[in-house]
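Take a specimen:
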Amino acid sequence: MKIAISVESTNDLSKELLQKYDIKVIPYHITLGNKSFLDGEMSTVDLFAHVDETKTLPKTNAINEFEFIEYFQSIKKDYDAVIHVSLSSGLSSSCANAKRASQNVENVFVIDSQSLSTGIGLLAIYASELALEGLEPSIIVQKVQDRVRDLQVSFVIERLDYLHKGGRCNLLSLLGATIFKIRPRIVVKNGKMSSDKKYKGSMAKVVKKYCEDVLEENSKPELDKVFLTYTTATPEMIEQARAVLVEKGFKNIYETHAGCTIASHCGANTLGILFFNSQEK
């Protein structure tokens, strides 16, 4: 059976990895003022420049059920089945829309990643590897769902104004963070985002401490691969993160840029490390 693995543009995998693992992508819509474009058609740098100029946050639009039906049908022309790994249902209605669409297209299976960004990418790559082994779709779906609990997904954010504009941060927190240069860590747990730790100082120093903390808290990282994902980042931020990951012993460090959908909610100089951390079974 020929199985297609699919994601939304919120997966933040590089074009090279998408091609390597034959992962299909359906893009979100981004609205800037009275203009609309597909995620991937504009760089995050240009997006941030637009926000700085207009002082208006872009809007991201969930993929609707009809779009998913057309998308799944187009894939089914060349594949026997589709396994779609969706952005967390706790963050967007796209997952619910994809599930409803799957009821109208035969052999389409939708997995709620309970995650975002390259957390979705990790699951999609795993699904692709299982498909290459020749496993049946139902077995792949179960195995991927079992891996959701092992995801470690977090980011450290330089500024809170994007979260504030998007309604995910109150004004008091924004003012405090701005005055005292507080850099919050955002974690994704049970499909939702929350802040569980705060750092202070330059982003290069903050990134180093953030990476060290994450790896100390997750004592059984699977060292085969880790994603170093950011909206934008200074060379010093990337250098500090890579140094910690190399010292830990990760074999493959994939550096990827977050797309406009993710960037619209967290702003510039947001950086995260994402990997599987083995849990007690």
User: Anything to note?
Assistant: Residues 168-177 have pLDDT under 50 and may be disordered. The two ends are 30 Å apart (CA to CA).
